[in-house]
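From the shared-data thread, chain only:
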Amino acid sequence: MKLNRIEIRNVLGIAFAEIDLPTPVAFFAGFNGSGKTSIVEAVRMALGGDLVARGVKLKKELKSLVHEGAKDGSAEVIHGDGTPTFALFPSGKTTDENVYRPSPFLHLVCEPHAFAAMNELERRKTLFALMKVKLDVKDVIARLKKRGVDEKKVDRVGPLLKAGFEAAHDASKLKGTEAKSAWRVTTGEVYGSEKAKDWAAEVPAFDAGAAAPLRAELAKLDADLEAGQQNLGAMQAEEKRRQEQRAKLPALEAKVDTYQRVDNKLAVDRAGLAEWEQKLAATKAEAGQGKRVGLVHDLAAAVAYLLPFGQTSVDKQPTQEECDAEAALTAYEREHGRIGATGSPEAAARIPEYQKARDLMANAVAAGETALAEIQAAQAEHEIILQAMADDAGGDPAVRAEAEGKVAKMKARRAEIVVALDRQHTLQLAADSAAKKTADAAEHHADVVAWDLITTALAPDGIPGELLAEALDPFNARLQQSADDAEWPVLKLGTDMVLRQANGRAYQFFSEAEKWRADAMLAEAISHLSGLRFLMLDRFDVLDNKGRADALAWVDVLAREGEIDTVLMFGTLKSVPALPQTFTAHWVQRGEIAELAEAA
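Structure, as C-alpha cells:
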C-alpha cells in the first residue's frame, strides 16, 4: 500500500499538516507534545475507518478529537487506490465516506502492539485468517483416520466440523461425557479408564445343560398326566352317572307302586265313558237332534223320499237294493233319529248334562292313559337301572384311588420341575444380562475412547495445532528474516500461541525495548504476508542508540529490497538522525510540519 500524501486539519494536536511521501519511509521526529501521536491517530483513523480514537469511549466525546479552537477537523491519506477521509464535527458526528478498508489486518500494522495484546484464541484465529488456512472437512477426516479414529465415529464428526473446530471439539467432548454416563448407568459404577478396559459383570453359577433333561421329563410327564387325568376323569364321570342313577330309584319305585291303582281307575273310567256315550247317543236319538247338516243327511233324506216310489209291491219279493236302502235308512234313524220326527223336548234338555258328563269321563280316560304310560316308562327305567347295578357293582374304589394317587404324584413332580426350570431360566436371564452388560459396557468404553481421541485431535494442540504449525512456518520464517536483517534476538510464535525469544523467555517478560522490537517484527510479518506492505512504527525513541541504528537499517533493507511500500516511523528526538536514502525526514513542531532547519 503506497501512500503519496497525508493532509491533516484540526485533528487532536495537529492544526495543519501537508506531508508528501516521496520515499518508501517517512520519518517523523520532534519533541514531546509536538503532535507526532496526533499524526499517528489521524492516519490510523483515516486508513482504517476506525472513528474511535484512543481514550474516546462515547460517540459524543468525538468532538474532543477536534483541535482546540476549531469547529471541525479532517484527515486525508492519498494513495493510488483512493483518498481515505476522516471528518470530525463538534457535535460528535463523524463521516467516513470513501474510507479505505483494504484488509482486516490493517489495524495490526497501524498498531504493532495489537497482535501481542491478543489472547491465544484471537491470535490463532488471526493467524488462520492471515495464512488463509481453511477448515477442509475432508482433510480433517483424513487426519482423524490417520490417528486411528473409528470409521463410524469419523462419519459423525463431519457434520460437527461445519460449525468449526471449537464447536466440533465441544460436541465431541460432550459425546464422550455422554458415553461415560452410559457406562455408569450400565455398570452402576463410577467410570475409570483403567477399570473400564476389562470390566465384566458378575455371571451367576449356571449349568446351561441342566435344563434339557428337565424339559424332556416335563414333556413326558405332561403326556402321562394328560392320559392319567383323562382316565381318572372317565372314572369320575362314570361314578357320577351311577350316583345319579341310584338317586333316581326311590322316585321310580314310588311311581311304579301306583301302577295297579292307576290301572284300576283307568278301567273304571273307560267303562263309565262307554256308558255315557251310549246314554248321550240314545238321548240325542230320542230328542231327534241328530246331525242333519251335510251330505250324509241330504242322502238320507233323499232315500227316505224316494224309497216309497221304488218299493216292490207286497206280492213280490223286494230287491236287494231296496233291502239295502231300508237297512241304511234304519241305521241312520237309529243314530240320528227318524227323518222328519220332532223328538222329545225332555230328552233335548238332558243332552248338555250328558255331553258334559261324557267329556269329563273322556278327559279322565286320557289322563289315566297318560299316567299309566308314564308309570310303564318308569318301570322300564327302574328295571334297566337295577339290571345295570346287577351287572356293575359300582366300580372298584381302590382302582379309582390308585388313579387319583398317580395323578397327584405327577402334578407334584410337575410343579417341582416347573420351579427348577424357572430357577434355571432366572439364572439364564441373569447370565445373559451379565453378558449383555459386559458387552454394553465395552461398547460404551470404546465410545469413550473414540470420542476422547476425537476430542484430543480437535483440541487446539491437536489437528488445529498441526494446521497452525503448517501456517506458522512462513510466519516464523518471516520473523527469522527480520531478526537476521536487524540483528535482533529471534522471535518465534509457538503452536500454543505464545511469543518467545530463542532463549525461551515469553513476551510478557520482555523489556519495553524488547517488546517494541518484537511488535515491529510481528507487524512487518503481518504486513508482508497479508500483502499490505505498509507499517506505522511509533515510539522509535524507546530504543537505545544501537537499537535505533538496527531498526533504521532493518527498515532500509525492507525499502531497498522492495518488500515494503510505505513505512511511517515516529520518535521523540532532539534532532533528526542521519537517515538512509530510502527515508524522508519530517520535523513536527507545535502541531505542524516544520522545516528541518528548525529541528535545533
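The chain has a mean pLDDT of 84.
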